[in-house]
Write a structure and sequence with these properties.
- It is a single chain.
- Helices cover 40% and strands 27% of the residues.
- It has 6 helices and 5 strands; from the N terminus they run ααααααβββββ.
- The chain has 2 domains: 29 residues; 154 residues, Nuclear Transport Factor 2, Chain: A.
- It is an alpha+beta fold.
- 15% of the residues are buried.
- Strands 1, 2, 3, 4 and 5 form a 5-stranded antiparallel β-sheet that branches.
């Protein structure tokens, strides 16, 4: 045989040998097979699922405080639509501070300091008690200890006036001593803790530029 033919046969034999070796190592693919998914692609898909946004879910700022779908929940949702800055949790934080401020102003007969935060009806009710104390020569020495429990009791919204009302139930502890004109204690004790329960209703016109809520009703 000619030398070129011999070289061609040798190269062909080497090629066949390499093909057979590769088939033995890699195997063969027959028919349709889905492509392999790399770890990076898997991670990307999992991350996408983790960050899917569920539209129309419950407003936790509301459902953390009242039952979902209740009259109070619907009223709070409407308040938030009328005033997008309204936040239930923040309101309750403010109500906590307002309760201490208003209660202690009443106990200490200092109503002038809370006029912007109470309605006329509440002011008149508080003032009648304070006036009666003064006529009898009585003074009250009170110290606020703290609020042991606070819950949102109810909420309502008036579509016509755009006024929202939120009732909050408080359980508080304080000391209170009533003294006569001579300074003698006739009721209470500085060492005796008084446990008090109140349900206060705060109101505000939700589309008003005035951000203040006012105490409009009190009860147990």
């Amino acid at each position: 045989m000619n030398s070129p033919i011999i070289q061609l046969l040798v190269l062909a034999g080497i090629a066949v040998f390499l093909i057979l070796r590769l088939r033995g190592v890699l195997g063969t693919r027959e028919g349709f097979e889905k492509p392999a998914v790399t770890r990076r692609e898997n991670e990307g898909r999992a991350a996408k699922r983790d960050f899917d946004v569920i539209e129309g879910g419950p407003d936790l700022d509301i459902t953390d405080h009242v039952e979902e779908g209740s009259v109070s929940a619907k009223a709070l949702a409407t308040m938030k639509r009328v005033d997008p800055t309204f936040n239930v949790s923040e309101f309750l934080g403010g109500a906590r501070g307002a309760y201490e401020m208003i209660l202690m102003a009443f106990e200490n007969s200092e109503l002038d300091s809370i006029v912007p935060f109470i309605s006329e009806d509440v002011y008149e009710a508080f003032a009648s008690v304070v006036d009666d104390r003064q006529r009898q020569g009585l003074t009250v020495d009170a110290k606020f200890i703290g609020i042991s429990d606070m819950t949102l009791a109810a909420a309502a919204f008036d579509e016509n006036t755009k006024e929202g009302e939120v009732s909050v139930r408080f359980k508080a502890e304080l000391t209170s001593v009533v003294r006569n004109a001579e300074g003698e204690a006739i009721e209470g004790s500085e060492k005796e803790i008084k446990r008090q329960k109140d349900t206060w209703t705060f109101a505000r016109v939700m589309d008003s530029s005035d951000p203040n809520w006012r105490l409009v009703a009190t009860g147990e």
